[in-house]
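1st attempt posting a full record on here, be nice pls
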Amino acid sequence: MTDREKTQEIFGSIGESDMEAASNSYLMSVVTVIVGMPLPIINLITTLVFLFANKSRGYFVRWHCMQALMSQVLLFFMNMAGVIWTLILIFSENSQFSNTYAAYIVVVVLSNIVEFIATVYAAVRVRKGIHVEWWFFGNLTSMIVKK
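the predicted structure (as tokens):
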């Protein structure tokens, strides 16, 4: 069974506009990461707006919009903690750069890079009508989004 057939088994018939809208949910995330990197809330808000704009679409579109949002929620908290910690280091007189801070920033940067690559990959596959379910976020999305 091909990936496309597996997707159709889960979601039924998927129209061209649904594949495009589902793919755009990931692309919206990529664009906002590029534009709003220093302000993590921008990424979260734009992905949330896109989800609400597509809430009346088919299950395939809603499912992928929600998965994109779930990944943005996790990154939001990670990025926000990094931004706050950085601001504290910059503006506080008693704060010192530490190995713990450096390690956290490395983890945040690597997480953002992995999420960026996974998002582009998902956008391309979903545009072809192939369902992409991310580890952890896929199961969570399936629990939240109902047919």
